[in-house]
Structures are given as structure tokens and as C-alpha cells.
């Protein structure tokens, strides 16, 4: 018995050392990241800048939410990305439309969040979509419901989101102006998004997402019904796309630490009256930094993701950020990240990435 306890203690100590060590480790990038980072940055900044110039910055902030479509299939060549990104964009728009429809009712918003989390997770894992998985469908639903609840015109908002998604598709397709990019091997969509299949790792990831959808929603209702989507979103982000117990613990730790540092950064920036073109440059710069570092250190990426999401949410809803809002996001992230990490225990210890 003593040996067993000692063995467990040694494994736990080694796991903790590895986890905390990973906070300060920059993994090598799988390839050049600046092209994807530039595309994501433009998809975020351009709609804000353009709509500011024509006198409607609020619409630009709302359209910028469509920029998240440009983050998908980043490991694919442009000839293949132009097939995947429109499919993802359609899913994100559906989440936005459902959020707008449900936003007037707290009950419908909570039920819709659970439905979107389940549907987006089933699609992302069943068809091997890859990073960032179902996360942005959940966040766009929550943001859209919040925008609707504060009285933004539904038609204008959805048109703005659709415009942002369309811009993301066009930016993704931009490299195809080069003949060399058009001559690259093209893969059929059913090969790029194989499935559906929910056996093995995909089934376990979906099971974890389902638990998060139900338990996270219940926790959110107990804490504050208006903040449910932040808790569920944080948990879904921790699940990620890696079917591994160790990855769940590492991502949970990274999300907690990265969010805390990111909130501090946000509180330093929030009091400064940044709007219009200046805000477009700030958000575009943050998005560029995120895409450069996200494959190397998740906590470092969260340091930039947190202020970006908080600034964009504040701008899109017209509700200024505050220390109270930032502290709520920290609590929501801690709850959600802990939940997401705990569901990682469903993976067997022997599972490997």
C-alpha cells in the first residue's frame, strides 16, 4: 500500500512539474505562422476600419465577430481552406442567428446554448474539423444573444456578421491569385472533413462536451444566468481537440493562468478611450499575436485572447468594460476551465495524443 501511495505521489509530482513547466515552454511551430496570422488580423481589423470610415463603427465591431471563421483549417493549403471555411462560416452564422432569436428570453438563451454546444461539438469532432473546434460557435451564440438582449437591431447585426464571415472567406481565398497556389493538389471536401464518426477519441471528446454543456449550464445558472456562455466556452476551450488526459490538465492550467494575465492587460488598456481605427489596429494586432503564439504556448495566447474578446464584446454591445466585468470573466474562466480539465479524467491514463 505504501509503495502504491508513493508511486501515485511520484506520478502526481512529476505531472505537476511538467504542467507548470509547460507554462514557460515555447514549443516549435509546425510551420510558418505569419500568413495565417496576417489573414486573421485583416479579417478582424478591416471591417472595423471600413465601417468607421463610413460612419458606422458599431456595425464594424459586430462584423468583426465573423473574423473567427478565418481561424479554421489553418494547417491546410489555400486551395483546401476555401472549401472548409465557408462550411464553418455557415455554422457560425447559424449560431449567431439562433443567438439573436433566443436573446430576448433567458430560458431560450440557456437552452439554445446547450443545443449549440452539443451540435457544434458533434459536428467538429465527428467530422475531424480540428482546432479551434466548437469553441467559436459557442462564443458567437452567447455574444449574439447578449447583443440581442441589449436591443441591437437583429437584421443589421446578422447582416454585419454575414459580411464579416464573407470577408473572412475572401481573405482566405486571396492567396489563390497566385498561379502556384492554384496548382497545388486539391482535396475533396469529404476528405478534408471525413465522417461522420463518433467512435474512439471523437466520441470521448463529444462525451466531454456534452457533460460540459449540461454541468456548465447548471453552474452558470447558479452563478449568473447572463454569464453561462463564458463558463461553457471556457470549458469547451479546455477540451480542445486533443483526446488525452494530460492535455486536458495542461490546457486547463494554461487557460486559468493566461486569462488572469490577460485580464490584467485588459484592465491596463480598458481605461484608454480606444475607438474606431485605433481599436481596429489594437484588435488586429492582438489577433496577429494570438495566431503566432497559439501553437507554441496556449497560456501566452490567452494573454492576448482575453483582452481581445473583452474589448470586442464591449465594443459590439456598446457596454463599457469595468473591473467588475473583468473579475466576472476570471471567475467564469476558473469555473469553466476546472470543469473542462476534470472531464479529461474520462480518458484513460494510457491515452496518448
The rounded Rg comes to 20 Å
Q: Quick one: overall form?
A: globular
Most strands sheet: none
Q: Average pLDDT value?
A: 87
Spans with pLDDT under 50 lasting ≥5 residues?
none
Measure the end-to-end span: 31 Å
The secondary-structure element order is: HHHHHHHHHHHHHHH
Structural class: mainly alpha
Range of strand content: under 5%
Number of helices: 15
What this model shows, in words?
It is a single chain. With 353 residues, the protein is an all-alpha fold. It has one domain (32-181, 191-346). The chain is built from 15 helices and no strands. The chain has helices spanning 2-22, 34-53, 57-63, 78-102, 106-126, 135-149, 154-173, 179-182, 189-192, 201-223, 228-239, 245-269, 276-293, 298-317, 323-343. It is globular and about 65 Å long.
In short:
The chain is mainly α.
